[in-house]
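ZP: hey, is the nicotinamide-adenine-dinucleotide complex queued? I don't see it on the tracker
AM: it wasn't, my bad. submitting now with these inputs:
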Amino acid sequence: MVTAAVPNELNVYESAEARFEVAAKKLGLAEGLYRYLRYPNKEITIYIPVGMDDGRLEVFTGYRVQHSVVRGPGKGGIRFAPNVTLDEVRALASWMTWKCAVVNIPFGGAKGGIICDPEKLSMGELERITRRYTAELSEWIGPERDVPAPDLGTNEQIMAWVMDTYSMHVRHTVTAVVTGKPLDLGGSRGRREATGRGVMIVCDKALEKLGMKREGCRVIVQGFGNVGSMGAMLMAQAGYKIVGAADIHGGLYNEKGFDVPQLIDWVHHQHKALPEFPAGGTKVPAEEILFHPCDIAIPAAVENQITSQNAYRFQARILCEGANGPTTPPADDILRKKDVFIIPDILANAGGVTVSYFEWVQDRQGFFWRESEVNERLQDVMVHSFEGVVHYAETHGVNNRIAAYMLAIDRVAFALKLRGIYA
Ligand code: NAD
């Protein structure tokens, strides 16, 4: 087995490149194509002046990286977080290219980010940052160019501001410029739950493959935002037992299982810290929760949670990556030796971009689907993609992660060959 070597384990761009390199070598990708697909198409840095509530003028740094538009418009979220870096946005943009190709939807890959702490900003400040960022990007985004979506620290309201700002610039309402919008502004039914639902679908498939059962299957979720809380809720409804959960404030482990709707109410409606949940269990640091006893561990927060320093303590049979980049390449090697079944991020969390694609289609049609129709189509895409990746891994003798990359790179390279290079 070829392993992905990284000089700096915690640099996500190096991790993304290392995996790309292993998969490209295995595929025997021609040198020119390798160089073309390795680098992003475009990187934009924006300095965003914002009048703060206290009268100060602050300048925030934002990025948009378009990795590939070979298979269609760029697609990828906008992240608001204090530790956003250009390298991180580059890595996330390339993962979007591979993710869209794994689930075979007609998008390329892009990602955006602004260095800011959304928890410390007022609604007015958030709105002004979002609008100026969108205005600066208005030439580069659009339904046919690059279609943003929510990511860490951004939500439906922020997408509504992106849509409105872009629409004001082009002088008519363009709902398809962004996905993850509120339902009343061209959002899709089922989008809010989509990434968590996709996570559940691939977990179901993994259980089937490994001869395990849903009932009583112990699950730990790290991150209790959109992906983590929706995933936990749907999985609890389906019979899984959620025994661990964590957010940025810390985690709880309870082998009897949580009442997930109550936990969601505590965190999202009462706005209380997750570890203080009264019907909770043992308090655990957020970074430790994934290493407690369970059958499925779902990182759904940030990158680099499973590393060479802690992977040897991992106990789950299945690792389902709700977050992007939660596992480093050296950790992959350790988990492989422990025979952990990995559902890699570019497959596991692709339910979000799949329903974003449905949202874009519905916006362009001006015709909206029932929720059952959205969920049914999502189920088809996720099941088909899971089976495709696992089959590819088995027939090519590689692990699921490298199989997903190989499948994706092959699809993008094929489209590129058909298009040719414009001189
Ligand atoms: P979110 O902002 O809704 O929630 C993030 C959650 O993670 C919060 O509960 C937060 O408290 C927690 N968190 C943040 N830092 C943490 C830390 N260091 N330790 C433990 N918990 C921490 O974000 P989200 O949309 O749920 O995204 C989560 C992950 O899933 C990200 O990696 C994102 O890129 C990925 N993802 C999201 C979507 C989507 O549709 N939202 C789609 C694909 C992938």
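AM: back. The radius of gyration is 20 Å.
ZP: great, adding it to the tracker
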